Backbone:
């Protein structure tokens, strides 16, 4: 059974940094590209970042480009999101999600999602 | 970037049919995907490539496409179908994907 579990979310001050992690199990992690998607409280979903299976390709939403960095450790079945220069508008639940199609170099759609982890940016 | 438009809400009585539309120019070139999300839970993929139902998804969920509009149909709505539904598509740029704003389905 595919399982994704996010961790690392907490309250952080504006301008601060935070690293989210996603532990994967139940599938061959190194075969699949991965995404981060966030959801602001009471609002909709926003895709923010993608990384290919090998880590060779990454993509970012304009809203986080230059501030967030996605990475992965296939030996540890782990995905990460380093978030710098955080703003109040980054407050959201962050989901890691598995890209459905093997062998992609860009995001298409996700078939499995973690339960999400709350990041709050506030002074 | 591409935009997808959904109605904010749809209300339906149990046993009736709910239809949720999603419109956007990108849908004339890219497939649409549908997710169901209940409060406090992760989204669940319920339709892929406009009309394909992943394994384990009930047959009452179906999808269709016409031009730049896709439609999610829930036939014989049940109380457990009350949730938010989001359409999604790869962006026309090919380097991201976009979501509709979501439709809240209320079962009366």
Residues:
């Amino acid at each position: 059974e595919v399982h994704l579990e996010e961790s690392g979310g907490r309250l952080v001050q504006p301008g601060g940094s935070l690293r989210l992690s996603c532990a994967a199990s139940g599938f061959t992690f190194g075969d699949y590209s991965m995404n981060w998607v966030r959801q602001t409280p009471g609002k909709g979903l926003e895709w923010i970042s993608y990384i290919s299976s090998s880590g060779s390709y990454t993509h970012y939403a304009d809203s986080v480009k230059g501030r967030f960095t996605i990475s992965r450790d296939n030996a540890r079945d782990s995905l990460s999101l380093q978030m710098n220069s955080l703003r109040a508008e980054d407050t959201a639940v962050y989901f890691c999600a598995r890209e459905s199609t093997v062998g992609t170099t860009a995001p298409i759609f996700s078939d499995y999602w973690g339960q999400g982890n709350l990041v709050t940016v506030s002074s | 970037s591409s935009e997808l438009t959904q109605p904010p809400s749809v209300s339906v009585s149990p046993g009736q049919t709910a239809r949720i539309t999603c419109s956007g120019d990108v849908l004339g070139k890219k497939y649409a995907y549908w997710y169901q999300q209940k409060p406090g839970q992760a989204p669940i993929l319920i339709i892929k490539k406009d009309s394909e139902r992943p394994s384990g998804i009930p047959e009452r969920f179906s999808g269709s496409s016409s031009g730049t509009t896709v439609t999610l149909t829930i036939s014989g709505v049940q109380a457990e179908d009350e949730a938010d539904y989001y359409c999604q598509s790869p962006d026309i740029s090919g380097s991201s994907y976009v979501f509709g704003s979501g439709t809240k389905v209320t079962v009366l």
In short: The longest strand of chain A covers residues 18-25. Residues 71 and 80 of chain A are 5 Å apart (CA to CA). The radius of gyration of chain A is 13 Å.
